[in-house]
Amino acid sequence: MMLSKKQLQDSIEYLKSQGFEAPEVGIVLGTGLGQLVDSIENQKIAHYNQIPSFPLATVEFHSGKLIYGDLGGKKVVVMQGRFHLYEGYDFIDITYPVRVMHGLGIKKLLVSNAAGAINLDMKKGDMMLIDDHINLQGGSPLAFKGVGEFGERFTDMSAPYDKAMNNQLKSIASEKGITLREGVYASVVGPQLETRAEYRMLRIMGADAVGMSTVPEIIVANHLNLPVSAISVLTDECDPENLAPVVIAEIIEIAGKAEPKMVTLFKALIEQL
């Protein structure tokens, strides 16, 4: 997909016409992480296939809609169903919704994902606050002609995750007795899972968790000067010495069990923003 200001404007105007007025916080929900939506009041829903110029969701775990409403005393817009490189989307498609939410007026972005634990001190069912990341997806959502029209081409990534929001999330977690690890997220293409040798490589590189999303959205948030925080729900343990075949249904189930804690953190953070 090419990116044009007109396309963005068409998407934004349509959503405004559907009552998506001045949201303050944008949220991207990861695989198996849809329960947050149940906490949103006064919902307005726009399916991706109704939004002009919007990519369409394909994976069976993603329902593919933007949901607007009230959460933690703020107007929020939530992306239920994200786009992945492994589905055949390009980086511009994957990050298009972040640009649209920014165009609607969000001031902060929260991102979630399901990931595998590389750091074996972390266990399945744990949550990890992302402090930094490694982009192993072989491309960038900013590598296109005319990116300068949308923001600074050479976007600084010295602190890609907002320190203030991360600190708030850490203090909320300790107040509520929720275990929140912190670490480095490596983003790969997928959709195949990693080999034992790849898990060893990721550990040597300094990754604490691995997944197939998130990094493109974080890069674009930084391009837009949009403060962002992200949490990984760790759904499996990637121990190369004792590697069992992965059962996707089990990953979804573990994500679902851990998710209420993530909802609690996000909701409390939104109240404080």
Textual characterization of the structure:
With 273 residues, this protein is an alpha/beta fold. It has one domain (5-272): Rossmann fold (3-Layer(aba) Sandwich), CATH 3.40.50.1580. It contains 6 helices and 9 strands; from the N terminus they run H-E-E-E-E-H-E-E-H-E-H-E-H-E-H. Strands 5-8-7-6-9 form a 5-stranded mixed barrel. Helix 4 links the parallel strand 7 and strand 8 (209-211). Helix 2 (91-104) crosses helix 5 and helix 3 (163-175) crosses helix 6 (248-272). The protein is globular. It starts with a helix and ends with a helix. Residues 25-271 form the Nucleoside phosphorylase domain. It is an enzyme of class 2 (transferase). It comes from Nonlabens dokdonensis (strain DSM 17205 / KCTC 12402 / DSW-6) (Donghaeana dokdonensis).
Which terms would index this structure?
about 270 residues, alpha/beta, Rossmann fold, 6 helices, 9 strands, EC 2.4.2.1, Nucleoside_phosphorylase_d, Nucleoside_phosphorylase_sf
